[in-house]
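pinning this so it doesn't scroll away 📌
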Amino acid sequence: MKKILFFAGSNSSKSINHKLVSFAASQIAGHTVEVIKLTDYQLPMYGEDIEKEKSYSVDLRMLNNKIKEADALVISVNEHNGMVSAYFKNTIDWLSRLDRNFLEGKKVLLMSTSNGKRGAASALEYTKSVLPRFGATIVESFSFPSYSENFSEETNSISNEVLLMGFTDVIQNFVHQLEQ
């Protein structure tokens, strides 16, 4: 049994990426899953002066420990103007300053969603290219387009059958990779 940590890269209180990652967690059986919100870990905007003056916060160390304790991660990234949010980048900046290889040995499923037809694909591609620098192994990825049209919050499920099949396939492949 593997321990899988789930979170979204968004700081929105109504984050659709958090809803997607929570749905993904509900689809995993036979493993320990934990869904967290990055907003529970207060991190100031990264700057060398802050790092030198205040060092690394307790919240940063707690988040880093959560990641260290997990065997794998499922992360859903949001997109602002074709890029990852400054909030998520700031979190990565702090984690990588504390420990350059903070994702060493972690298998990662990356997801993204938006209400647009591309499903935050630009942010997803950027994140796929960046996380391996910190030790991550990206084993699967999934871009979920037009969230409001394809996800039912009433039933907490994917309403588009084709997307549901693709999503299920990605989850099953990810779990299979963890079990090898």
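📌 and the second one:
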Amino acid sequence: MQRTMKKLPLAAALVVLAAGLAWASQLMSVQVRTGQLRDKPGFLSKVVGELEYGDRVDLTVEKGDWRQVKSLGDGRSGWMHFSALTEREIVLHPTDKDVQAAAGSDELALAGKGFNKQVEDRYKRQARLDYARVDEMEKIVVPQKSIRQFILAGRLGGAQ
């Protein structure tokens, strides 16, 4: 009887601990076409993997605008910007058209600053500007590795 009484508080403590851990965990979905997992919270941090639109993740840590997440699919973990994530579950049977319609992380960042396709079109009409060169520049893709090397070589900081 005395041994059972000692085990009861321990069992209760384990139940409370498990409930606390389950509560601390938060499931989220990737809401961009391709979300980059980074080794540290920061846009210039090394990309360690990518998750696709609709992938489910477990949020483990929050640090400013960054979330440390772990993929429920394959267990990969890393840091993602909060704008690439949503609390709602995304249906995982999108057509190619649905995925193409999803916002990219760059588009979400610009939208957060109030810039979108409608704003761009309004500027084009008002100022009669030629955006052909801008459109060409937007097609240029610089690999993340090259950006890191440039930052390190120039001692610009931020590429830890």
